[in-house]
Structures are given as C-alpha cells and as structure tokens.
Amino acid sequence: MKINPYLTFDGTCEQAMRFYAEALRGELGMLMRFRDSPGCEELPPDLIMHARLNVGDEVLMASDNHPAFPYEGIKGCSISLNVDSPEEAQRVFDVLAGGGKVEMPLAETFWARSFGMLKDQFGVAWMINCAKPGF
C-alpha cells in the first residue's frame, strides 16, 4: 500500500505542479485537462483534471477544483519532505519558500539536523526534515 498526497488548486494546478517538478527534481508524468474528458467540454480549457508528479518512487497528485464546487483552499495538512542532507534541505526549502511564507526557518532540532516549515506561493504547507540518526 502507498499513501499519496492529492492536492486541489483553484486554477493553478499546472503552474504548481511544474514548479514542484523543478523544485523536487521530479518528472511530471501526467497532465490531463477537464476539456479532454467527455461531458466536460464546457469547462475552462486550462483546468487540470488530474496531474501526477513522480519523485523517485514517490508520487504527488493534484487537480484543479471543479468550478461547480466552492474552493476553500488547502487546509489542515502539510506535505513532509524527508531529505538526506542539510544542504538538500536548504536547497528545497529555499526554492519552495520563493514567493511564499516561511513559518519556521530551517534550524537544528533535537530530532533533525535541519527542520523548517513554510507555506508556498500556492498555499501548500511543507515541512522539510533532515533527520538525525535514530529518528
């Protein structure tokens, strides 16, 4: 079994997933638009029905919100990235924080060589963690 985060955006899915592909050095494996699905031809042509980002053997999926439903933003969760070195933590943190808001700067903690939290320019919360041995 795998657990994969699935994000919903308000018209910025494609932009966000391309940004994450670059930031996480992943590959955008799928970008399906609503307009290409039967019965959805009347929707705005840019909306994404399903996107899949492959990062190693991990997957991040997303879509744009269907206009028939109110969009309430992304709330109550964070995506946690566990990286191998403080240098990689810094690189990813800096890229994801661009245009966003740092909530906790990267710093050493009792469990991590480097840990920080941010909300990116698309409103997605991230926790970047480079764990100490044994954690």
Automatic annotation (TrEMBL):
Gene3D superfamilies with a match to the protein in the record: 2,3-Dihydroxybiphenyl 1,2-Dioxygenase, domain 1
Residues annotated as domain PhnB-like: 2-128
One Pfam family matching this protein: 3-dmu-9_3-mt
Record-linked InterPro entries: Glyas_Bleomycin-R_OHBP_Dase, PhnB-like
This protein's name: VOC family protein
Organism of derivation: Agrilutibacter solisilvae
